[in-house]
Amino acid sequence: VQLQASGGGLVQAGGSLRLSCAISGRTFNVMDWFRQAPGKERELVAAMLLTGGNTYYADSVEGRFTVSMDNAKKTMLLQMNNLQPEDTATYYCASDRAYVGGPNSVIHWGQGTQVTVSS
């Protein structure tokens, strides 16, 4: 399994970005987006349980971020709206063995994509 994240960039506060995670190989039932800012721990931003369509969002992004899956393209998306400087981080997609399990339950990590939000 390989996960390829893309779509990061530099955006002004209030702007939007859409991250993509292309999945090669099998698709796992739990897919995540994490982020890690310099000097901080990696945190779970959003998770999706593919059977049933359940989604989880961290409080800090609830209402602004939306996770979805394009099954035809085997691509997970993260639509990020109303971005704020505190959203600046490297974003990682991951396949997971547990829903809302945190970094320790991750099976595969994609490489990160940098998101920078200027004020």
Keywords, separated by commas or semicolons:
single chain, 119 residues, mainly beta, seven-stranded mixed beta sheet, four-stranded antiparallel beta sheet, 11 strands, 0% helix, globular
Oligomeric nature of the chains: single chain
Helicity, as a percent range? under 10%
Instruction: Please outline the major beta sheet.
Output: 7 strands, mixed
Rg over CA atoms, rounded to whole Å, is 13 Å
How much β-strand is present in the residues? Answer: over 45%
Q: Enumerate the spans where pLDDT stays under 50 for 5 or more consecutive residues.
A: none
Can you describe this structure?
The protein has 119 residues and is mostly beta strands. It has no helices and eleven strands. The strands form two sheets. Strands 2, 4, 5, 6, 9, 10 and 11 form a seven-stranded mixed sheet that branches. It has strands spanning 2-6, 9-12, 17-24, 30-36, 43-49, 54-57, 65-70, 75-80, 89-96, 106-109, 113-118. The radius of gyration is 13 Å and the shape is globular. The mean pLDDT is 96.
